Amino acid sequence: MGTRRVLVTGCSSGIGLAVAARLAKDELRRFKVVATMRDLGKRGPLEKAAGDSLNKTLEIKQLDACSESSIRECVNSLPDRRVDVLVNNAGLGMIGPLECQSIDAMKELFDTNFFGLARLVKEVLPDMKRRQSGHIVVMSSVMGTQGLLFNDVYSASKFAVEGFCESLAVQALKFNIKTTLVEPGPVVTEFERKVYEDAESMDLSGTDKETAKIFREMYLPYSKKIFASLGQIPEEVAEQTVKVITDKEPPLRHQTNRLYMPMTALKHADPTGRLPLDSFYKMTFKHDKVFNATLAMLHLLKRIGGKK
């Protein structure tokens, strides 16, 4: 297989930036990376990360996942419109009590997280079908398989992404097109930091006092502990994404964080949904000491694993 052109979205920071830079620096020079972002004014960090690969194995282009014309213009600018691998990464976050979220904000999140993916796939899929080859790689989340407290809307958008890809994968396979959902757990990025920073100053007047207290005094502190204990850095996710892209038989789903797998495994262990629901409820509201002890143990395992 020759050099593959990889179109990556959301490359101004975080996972998208790390994936684009890692692919561009591939020692075997297997990839030609088209790293895209909505605002080219934010290209500085990517240019720095790309280093010598800039304008050689990596080029930066403008692409707004919320605009069909922007997507088409970007794809049309590529030789033969060829995209061998699409890495859909652009996304928005949202946490907090449902009563405090506006419908307009929810629509904006879905416009990027779900419809942005749909627009991109709709643009590149016909050409992939015609060539009888391609790989659609989608940055999903463990929250696309297991909903979590105060992540109602974000999780819903990722569930939509998972259903879309799982359905499309069957048809795509007929045309020799692979589909992979990359499912990170907590990742320490500027994206996540901003989401939680905004949450700490969030107007909670739209909900009751008990819910506001649970969010401020329980959820936010717990989340910080989870990120400290289980959080990956973007480069770790990027490394695993590259492995998925280079796999001859890539999986439909790939979780990047082994330490998070026991939590998602609960859902598959009981089709009725009672086991994960009961477990998460008790960990959150009844057994906080057990929760903290579990996180401490997982943090230790992560440190041990990192030293190998």
UniProtKB/TrEMBL annotation:
Source organism, top-level taxon: Eukaryota
One MF annotation (Gene Ontology) recorded for this entry: estradiol 17-beta-dehydrogenase [NAD(P)+] activity
UniProt-annotated binding residues for NADP(+): 10-38, 64, 158
Pfam families membership: adh_short (PF00106)
The UniProt record lists the keyword Ribonucleoprotein: no
Keyword annotations: Lipid metabolism, Oxidoreductase
A GO BP entry: estrogen biosynthetic process
Residue numbers binding substrate: S141
GO cellular component: cytosol
InterPro entries in UniProt: 17beta_DH, NAD(P)-bd_dom_sf, Sc_DH/Rdtase_CS, SDR_fam
Residues at the active site: Y154 (proton acceptor)
Family in the record: Belongs to the short-chain dehydrogenases/reductases (SDR) family.
PANTHER family: RETINOL DEHYDROGENASE 8-LIKE ISOFORM X1 (PTHR43391:SF1), RETINOL DEHYDROGENASE-RELATED (PTHR43391)
Entry protein name: Retinol dehydrogenase 8
UniProt organism field: Champsocephalus esox
